[in-house]
Amino acid sequence: MTDHSKKLIIESVREDGSKLRPSDWIERLSANMAEFGKDHRLHYSNKVRPKVIDGEKCLCIDSRLQSENPEAFEFILGFARSNQLRTREA
To answer: Residue 68 and which of 25, 32, 34, 49 are 20 to 30 A apart at CA?
Structure first.
């Protein structure tokens, strides 16, 4: 993975400033793309992972997901749109 990949950040805050419930939605979406390693622990994908930015939980999406798994990318974007979540590029 290169540091030059663009990232889409989906915040846990709606456009109106309210928080999305349940609060673990980020972990749930991230877990769908995660895999269990040889250590029997869940490892998040480099393309979809939870991240804390400025004290807020966010979902960080690598732009490469769009070409590598367009269905997953569209599902996540649809989820963000339907819940009116704040998004930005990083």
So the answer is: 25
